[in-house]
Amino acid sequence: MGxxxxxxxxxxxxxxxxxxxxxxxxxxxxxxxxxxxxVLGIDPSLRGTGLALLDFNTKSAPHLIYSETLRLxxxxxxxxxxxxxxxxxxxxxxxxxxxxxAFEQTIFVxxxxxxxxxxxxxxxxxxxxxxxEKPVFEYPPLRIKQAVVGFGKASKEQVAKMVMQLLKLxxxxxxDESDAAGVAVCHAxxxxxxxxxxxxxx
Length: 202
Known about the structure:
Blueprint: H1 5-13, E1 38-43, E2 48-55, E3 63-71, H2 78-95, E4 100-104, H3 112-131, E5 136-139, H4 141-148, H5 156-166, H6 175-190
């Protein structure tokens, strides 16, 4: 049996044989993009939200339309940061063609303040998406790394390098932007219409 596209991608980045790399289960993730359209990937963070808009309409490699890391200064209050996140996401939705929006799910964190900040950042971005009535999808970090790199314990460096190759970029994106792009890639490669959860009118 021939190797999957995802395994071939992993080989390109790894100096070790792919037999030594734990791959995602083929029955858990689809092979090849199953979604055609534009996806805004969002990696929420109070002071470093990653945003990446990808086009999956072409038959060749996905195309990066736009990416940004929303760097917010420490002296800004939480309210000011949330407002900036809301405005930034709203601006993209108003000035770009966006079909779906995909978020990285907030993972478990022991620090309660960190968890609250991440949840608030995600809420600000999701509120902007909801007002524009765009379908919202969420994916856990493990699933995103599986879809992009081929195994769930991939590092940020590996994700950034794979995103660069998938999108045929000259340079790696900053980590927050490559993570956001990874969310969009995960959505395009795992999306099933019957499983879609459109949160825009919930």
